[in-house]
Structure formats: structure tokens, C-alpha cells
Amino acid sequence: MPRHGACPLSEPPALRRRPLDGKARQVGYGATFWWNGGSGAAAVSPVPGRPGRRPGHSSTREEIARAAREQFAAGGYDRVTLRAVAAQAGVDAALVAYFFGSKRELFDEVVNPFSDSSALMARLLDGDPRLVGERLARLVIEALDDTGRRERILGTIRTAAVEADTARKVGEKFTTELLEPVVSQLGVAQAPLRAALVMSQILGLALARHVVGLEDLTSASQDELVAALAPTLQRYLVGDIP
Length: 242
Known about the structure:
This protein is mainly alpha-helical.
């Protein structure tokens, strides 16, 4: 839902209050705001939407989210600004803050790929414990081969590499809330170490295949990668480790 409880037929209050000094401004909803300087009031006059833009409240929000995911994936957290996201989405910068709040809130909502830890844990534990490494390997490969999910994962990794808060959140969500409980459910000890070792393999694969672009990894099929990765993940999850 949009922030501040706005409805699809009204503009954000923050934009209605913004003086435009007698100038018209397109704000992304197919309406132009005029500032009546003497009266201190704003009037709205409808104008045709931009060609190709889907009308409506939800589509504008999704276009902002899509632009943000692409920019976070490409440049990490520090290089992205709300203004740049707005420019790519073709909307007023105030709309980004209206829908998502701060840059940190925008990042957490549109990039964080670890919000469904319970569902992932259920998927990993559903089946033969001797194949849990294969299930995890396939889950990871499928996620990285899906464009939208890959953008989220790479955006998170790039940001975690330079920002301690994001690194901590990744650790909490993927290791503490997902992998450690999986290891505990499987009845083996050293859950924190095992979770960290698994995470190291996942991060290494993501970077080598989708950032560095190593040819042998980029050209390999999903089944080939799962077959190669699964035994290592299986050992880290339930096998013997020093």
C-alpha cells in the first residue's frame, strides 16, 4: 500500500503542497499542478498521460520499484539516489519518497530477497535429508537464473560488500533465520559455522557467474551447476566438517 494512505484518485499531499510559482509541472499521474501565487492554492488540470505509460496508481509504484531494483543491482546502495530512481521511472522525485520513504526503506522493500525465510526453510526441509544439499543448490540456481530475483540478490550482495548494516541484515536473514534453523532441524551441531560455509558458496557462485562472468559457469546448464554444487552444500549442511 502507498505510504500515508493515499487513494488512486488523489495525488500525494506532499506534492499538492509544493509551490510551483505559476509554472505547470508534470508529476507522473497524468495531471498538471498550477500554483496560484496570490491565493496560495493549487489547482489541477488533467493532461494526457505520457505515451506508453500505463495509467493508475499501482503501475506508477511498480515502475519506481523496477527502476530502483535495476539501479541497486547495477551500482549498489551508495551510488543510488532517489532522484536518479525517479528519473529512470519518469516521475517526480517526491513520488519516490511518498511511496517508499527514505532510500533505506526503498532498498529494504524492493531489493531484499530474504523476506520469505519461512517458506524457503519449509522447502528445504520437505524431503529426504540426504538430498537437502541438492534442494538448496537448485533453489539458489533457479533464483539466480530468474532476472528479477537475480537483480535483488546482486543488489543486496553489492551493497553488503560496502555497507555494514546491509551485511548484518543479510547475515540475519539468510544465515541466522534460514540456514541455522535448517541445520538444527536436521539434527546436526555447529549450525552457525555450517550456515556461514554454505553462504560462502552461494556468494562465490553468484559473483563468479553473474558479476565476474566466468565463461564455464555462465555457459553451464542449471542441472550441471546443481550437480556440481550440491555435494559441497550437503557436506556443509549435514556432513563431517573440521
